[in-house]
Design a protein that fits this description.
The chain is about 40% helix and about 15% strand. It is an alpha/beta fold and about 400 residues long. Strand 1, helix 2 (about 50-65) and strand 2 (about 75-80) form a beta-alpha-beta unit.
Length: about 400
C-alpha cells in the first residue's frame, strides 16, 4: 500500500471520529444536571442576609427537583461564601465560573460586594440573576448577562414617594439617612421627583452606620418640625432613631425603605410598639408572614427547611428562582446560555411568587420588578398590615 493511500485512510478515520464525537457540552450542563452557582454572606457580621435568603431560592429549586427537574435534568447548587466583602465576593464568583464551571449564577445580597463582582459576569458571559442586592448600578445601565427580580433602590424610592403624596397634609419633609451608596440609590429617584410632587425637604440629617445614639439627629428633626420624616437607614439605625424620637417627643409619620419592612422586628429593636406606631415601610412582598397571600410560599419554605426561623428574608430569593426555572423550561432540552438569556428576555407578566410584582423583562430591560406596596403595624402593634400603595388610617 502506498504512503499516499495510508495517509488518506488515516485522514478518513480521523474525520469519521470527529463526526462521531458529540458537540462540547455547555458549561454546567450534563445529561442529568444543570449546575447553578450561588453566593452570599454565609459568614461575617451580616450573615443574617446569607443562608436565610439563599434558602428561599434553594427551597424552590428543591421543589422542582422533587418533581423530576427540568427537561430531565436536576438542579445542582454550588454554594460559595462572599462574606459581604467585595474582594471575597469577586473571588467566590471567579471560583464558581472557572473552577466549578456553573451554567448560571443566582446570588448576592450585599450591593457593594455584588457590584464589585459585576465585571466577572460581563467578561465571562455568564448569566447572573441577582438574589437580593438592590443597588441600581448592578443592573442599570443594563448588560446582556445580568438580570434582577428584586425591587431596585430607585423603585423603592418611587414607592415611598408615591405613598407620601397620598398622606393628607404632608408637604414638608425631613430625611434621615445613612451616608453610603445604598442610601443614595434609594434617594436618587425620590430626590429627582419630590419637588414636582409639591413637596419640600426642610432637613437632611445623616446617621452613621451602627449608631447607638440618635439624640442629635432626633433633636435636629424636631427643630425643623416636618410634616413627615423619611428614614433611609438600616434596621439598627432606624430603631435607634425611632427610640430617641419617642424619647424627645418627635412625632411621625415616618416612612421607611423596604430595608426595614419587617416592622415587628423593628418594634422589638426600638423597644416596643409605641416607638413604631406611626411608621410606614415600603415592601416588595405580597404580604407579611401569616397572610393568605404568603401561604403557598410559606408551605414550600417550611417543608424544605423545617428547622429555620421563618422571616421576611426567607422569601427574598424566591422570585428570582421561579424566574430562573421558567426560563430554563422555556429554553428547552438543548440548553445553552444564549437560549436561556433569550428565554429570560421573553418573560412577560411572569410569576414572582411571594413578590408583589409580575416579572417583566425585555431585550432592553433587566430590572424585572418595579412595583411595591406599603406596610405598617396594626393598632395593637401585634401584626403587620398591608396597606397597598396609598395611605389609610389604621383603626
Amino acid at each position: 500500500m502506498s504512503t499516499r493511500r495510508i495517509g488518506a485512510g488515516i485522514a478518513t478515520l480521523v474525520l469519521a471520529g470527529l463526526l462521531a464525537t458529540p458537540a462540547l457540552a455547555e458549561p454546567g450542563v450534563s445529561a442529568t444536571t444543570i449546575k447553578i452557582g450561588m453566593f452570599g454572606p454565609l459568614t461575617g457580621p451580616v450573615s443574617v442576609y446569607g443562608y436565610p435568603i439563599n434558602n428561599g431560592a434553594i427551597a424552590i429549586y428543591n421543589e422542582i427537583n422533587a418533581k423530576g427537574g427540568i427537561n430531565g435534568r436536576k438542579l445542582e447548587i454550588v454554594h460559595e461564601d462572599g462574606a459581604c466583602d467585595p474582594a471575597k465576593t469577586r473571588a467566590a464568583v471567579k471560583k464558581l465560573i472557572s473552577r466549578d464551571e456553573v451554567f448560571l449564577i443566582h446570588g448576592g445580597s450585599c450591593s457593594a460586594a455584588v457590584f464589585a463582582a459585576r465585571e466577572e459576569f460581563v467578561e465571562e458571559k455568564v448569566p447572573f440573576m441577582v438574589m437580593a442586592a438592590t443597588m441600581d448600578k448592578i443592573s442599570d445601565p443594563m448588560d446582556k448577562y445580568i438580570f434582577t427580580t428584586t425591587l431596585p433602590g430607585s423603585g423603592d424610592g418611587r414607592v415611598m414617594l408615591d405613598f407620601i403624596k397620598t398622606i393628607p397634609g404632608v408637604k414638608r419633609l425631613a430625611v434621615v439617612r445613612n451616608k453610603n451608596e445604598w442610601a443614595d440609590a434609594k434617594l436618587e429617584k425620590f430626590n429627582a421627583n419630590y419637588k414636582a410632587a409639591g413637596l419640600e425637604v426642610i432637613a437632611d440629617v445623616e446617621l452613621a452606620r451602627n449608631a447607638t445614639d440618635a439624640t442629635t439627629q432626633a433633636l435636629a428633626v424636631k427643630q425643623a418640625n416636618p410634616d413627615a420624616t423619611l428614614l433611609v437607614t438600616y434596621p439598627g439605625e432606624s430603631a435607634v432613631f425611632l427610640r430617641d424620637a419617642l424619647k424627645y417627643g418627635l412625632k411621625g409619620p415616618y416612612i421607611g425603605t423596604n430595608g426595614i419592612m419587617d416592622v415587628l422586628d423593628l418594634k422589638d429593636r426600638a423597644g416596643g410598639a409605641e416607638a413604631v406606631k406611626d411608621v410606614y415601610v415600603s415592601a416588595f412582598l405580597k404580604g407579611p408572614i401569616g397572610s393568605p397571600e404568603m401561604k403557598e410560599w410559606t408551605d414550600i419554605y417550611v417543608k424544605q427547611f423545617p428547622n429555620d426561623k421563618l422571616q421576611s428574608l426567607s422569601f427574598y430569593g424566591m422570585s428570582g428562582a421561579l424566574t430562573v426555572v421558567a426560563a430554563l423550561e422555556k429554553a428547552g432540552k438543548d440548553l445553552t446560555r444564549e437560549k436561556f438569556i433569550a428565554a429570560l428576555e421573553s418573560i412577560n407578566k411572569g410569576n414572582a411568587g411571594p413578590a408583589f410584582c409580575e416579572v417583566q423583562f425585555a431585550k432592553d430591560r433587566r430590572q424585572g420588578c418595579l412595583d411595591g406596596t406599603m406596610w405598617t403595624l396594626s393598632a395593637d402593634g401585634n401584626t403587620i398590615v398591608n396597606l397597598g400603595p396609598s395611605w389609610k388610617k389604621i383603626k
